[in-house]
Amino acid sequence: MDGAPEGGPVARWALALHGGAGTISRSVPLDRREEYLKGLRTALDTGVSILAQGGTALDAVEAVVRTLEDDPLFNAGRGAVFTHDETVELDASIMDGRTLACGAVCGVKTVKNPISLARLVMEKTSHVLLSGAGAEQFAAVVGVERCENSYFYTEHRHRALQQAKATDQVQLDHSGLTTVDSKISPAQLAGTSAGGVSPTADSAGAGAGSDEAAHVKGTVGCVALDAQGNLAVATSTGGMTNKRWGRVGDSPIIGAGSYANNKSCAVSSTGAGEEFIRHVVAHDIAALMEYGGHSVAQAADLVVHTKLAKGDGGVIAVSKDGEVAMPYNSVGMFRAAADSNGLHTVKIWE
Ligand code: ASP
Question: Which of 56, 265, 328, 340 shows the greatest Cβ crowding within 10 Å of its Cβ?
Answer without folding.
Answer: 265
